[in-house]
Every structure is written in structure tokens, then in C-alpha cells.
Amino acid sequence: MSYISHYTPETLSREEVDQTQGPMVLEFGANWCAFCQGAQPDIKAAIDNHPDVQHMKVEDGKGRRLGRTFGVKLWPALILLKDGHEVGRVVRPGSRSEIEEVLSQIEL
User: Fold this and answer.
1) What is the pLDDT of residue 4?
2) Closest CA to 41 of 80, 1, 5, 77
3) Residues 6+ apart with CB under 8 A from 101
4) Residues near 66 by Cβ (< 8 Å), separated by ≥ 6?
5) Alpha carbon 41 to chain centroid distance?
6) Cα Rg for the chain, rounded, in angstroms?
7) Would 9 be classed as within a structural domain?
8) What is the domain-level CATH number for residue 19?
9) What does DSSP say about strands 54-59 and 23-29: parallel, antiparallel, or unpaired?
10) Mean pLDDT by 10 residues, the chain (108 residues)
11) Is residue 6 domain-resident?
12) Which of 41, 58, 84, 94 could be 18's S-S partner, Cβ–Cβ 3.0 to 4.6 Å?
């Protein structure tokens, strides 16, 4: 699956996320967030280098449960999962290489 450009309201429950198979990146943030907007070129480049990793952008904020179940406090927050289990996370990434390093762990 390729890079997704916009955050969308929650569509999966935590139970559904926990049951996913294969590598996945859950990216929490908001479309209006300046930190999220600034990180997008690095996130896109890293995701594009890993076409076998499912990417899902989840709109986060007040009243949004999924982000709370992962303890998300700052955006963007990339939660890297393998078979529904968290194997890494990058919060407010500062570079593409920071994202790539963690992504390489979930494709092993």
C-alpha cells in the first residue's frame, strides 16, 4: 500500500488493529497540524521505499480513542506494527533516516 496524504477519522478499533497481519504504520496527527505538515516529505519518502508496509493515517485529537490506546501525546506519531503488535515508534520525526531505521525493523 502506498503513502496516504490526508488524516481520516478513525475507521478501525483497537481490537481490529491488534488483529491485522503483516507490517503496518499507523500515523496519528491532524491535517491542520504544522508539525504533521512539515514531516510529510520525509514520511512520504520513507513509506514510498517500503511498498509492502500498509500505511494508515488516523486523525487524532480530543475524543479519539485509538490514539489514546497507544499513548499518543504528540503529532505526528508513527506507530509501527507487525501482526498487530507494536515494534517501534517515531514521534515528531526529524529526518527520513529516522523513519527508515524503524521501518526496516518491521520488514524483517
Assistant:
1) 87
2) 5
3) none
4) 10, 12, 13, 14, 17, 26, 28, 58, 60
5) 14
6) 12
7) no
8) 3.40.30.10
9) parallel
10) 84 92 96 97 95 94 92 97 96 95 81
11) no
12) 84
Q: b or e along 62-101 (b: 16 or more beta carbons within 10 Å of the residue's beta carbon)?
A: eebebbeebebeebbbbbbbbeeeeebbbeebeebeebbe
Count of positions (residues) in the chain = 108
Q: Which residue shows C-alpha cell 517501534? A: 88
Residue 29 has a pLDDT of 97
The number of folded domains in the chain is 1
Strands 23-29 and 77-82: antiparallel
How high is the pLDDT of residue 66?
A: 94
- Asked whether residue 8 is domain-assigned, the answer is no
Which structural domain, as residue segments, surrounds residue 83? 14-106
- Structural domain includes residue 102: yes
The position carrying cell 533516516 is 97
